[in-house]
Amino acid sequence: MKRIQLMSLAAVLLATSCTSNRQSDDTFALETREVDFQDKTGDVIQAEELNLEVPGVRNVVVYDSLLVFTTTDPSGMLQVYNKRTLEKIGSFCTQGRAMNEFVGSALWTNSQHYLKDGELILPLLDGSTSFYKEVNVSASLREGHTVVEGTVQRAGYDNNIVMLDGTLDRTFSFREPRNIVGSGFTMPQYVVTGYDETVKEIEVFKKHINCQNEDDLERCYYGRLMKHPDRNLAVLPMSSMKYILFFDLDKDEYYALRQKGTPAFSDIYVDRSWWNDNKGFGSVDCSSDMFMVAYCGGEYSINARKNDMVTFELLLFDWEGNYLGGAKMDTNVHCCSYDPDTQLLYAVNIGSEKIYTYDLSGLMKSIGR
Question: Using CA atoms, how far apart are residues 243 and 63, in angstroms rounded to an integer?
């Protein structure tokens, strides 16, 4: 099976190109560039429910001819379907204590997958331990049972971790602040763990964001890592801030982009009203040419919340941080995966356990692709 490659996207909206902003910020350590993506998306794209039931579904990835789901079903926490026929062709990752089983849930919240010798690999966290396991989906389908290539222990990063170099042996992790009794809250940590277990920490924040309630500090930094499929380049879209952090780990270059007009971190004051008025990003999917994020900070989402609805905008960026385009989405979903062959975005609503598709062909055409 060949690696999925999304279509190449160029920065076609010159008005939204990134501009450098080197204002002093005594809270934030990274150079920040401004980009304008606010309220610039096009038409609403309607979700279409897929005629497929996957009990306990939690996440999805589409790869070549496969639809792969993680679930809460202990008899098979990894379910594989034929994308075209929707026929189940494999059930793996049972609950148990064998090396190719999982003591707790098989967690896979960043949807990372990669090839190793042409085989599709999913790094999954055993939810009751701190061990990550490389599940070889291709070999599992071939042999009829779960095939695990290797394991690594990475404690304390809440599954906000990506594997570097296409292996478990080198990782990049993000950890929110922790409240240590007697010491207060730690700073958020951005850490590269090397092959020999050496640790390199990247300074991102010099001090904490100014927060009215100390107990809110942890969620000020929320976000979910996404990694470029071929390079050691990761992005962290922040959930409650209009910032996206970039980590080029091969070049040791780190920077951020923010919505034009958004205050610097040193000027932000998080009070009780912040959580109602400020929404940021959720990670969606990425390719060698772009990454996709869900954005809930625009007028479209704000107006929906006033009517007790949850919607989002899908924003597309290249890996240099240029805004490419976007669309409004009509349904609340939690996990998504894009299929370049059909230009469909597969999406899961965890609460209802429904699976949807969005036809993105119009969006791609609107940006010349």
Answer: 29
Terminal alpha carbon distance of the chain: 24
Whole-number Cα distances in Å, 197 to 161, 186, 192: 15, 22, 9
Could you read off the pLDDT of 15-73 as tens digits, one per residue? 334 444 444 589 999 999 999 999 999 889 999 999 999 999 999 999 999 999 999 99
In this structure, the dihedral spanned by the alpha carbons of residues 62, 78, 281 and 264, taken in order and rounded to 10 degrees, is -120
DSSP 8-state assignment for residue 341: T
Q: Residue holding tokens 């209009």? A: 242
Q: What is the DSSP letter of 263?
A: P
pTM score, two decimals?
A: 0.89
Task: Please give the C-alpha separations between residue 344 and each of 90, 189, 231, in angstroms, as whole numbers.
Answer: 23, 35, 25
Burial class (CB in 10 A: 0-12, 13-18, 19+), 14: exposed
Query: Is the Cβ–Cβ distance between 241 and 266 less than 8 Å?
Result: no
Neighbours of 200 (CB within 10 A): 12
C-alpha span between 324 and 7 (Å, rounded): 12
Question: Does residue 11 register a pLDDT over 80?
Answer: no
Contact partners, residue 114, CB within 8 Å, separation at least 6:
121, 163, 166, 229
Please give the full DSSP string across 168-235, using - where no structure is assigned. TTSEEEEE---EETTTEEPPPEEEEE-TTS-EEEPP-BSS--EESSGGGHHHHT-B--EE-SSSSEEE
User: In this predicted structure, what is the pLDDT of residue 14?
Assistant: 31
How many CB atoms lie under 10 A from the CB of residue 204? 20
Which amino acid is it at 23? Q
Closest by Cα among 5, 80, 32 to 246: 32
Give the C-alpha separation, 147 to 138, whole Å.
Answer: 9
Of 204, 233, 188, 237, nearest to 30 (Cα)? 204
Name the β-bridge partners of 259: 35
Give me 147's structure tokens: 């095939």
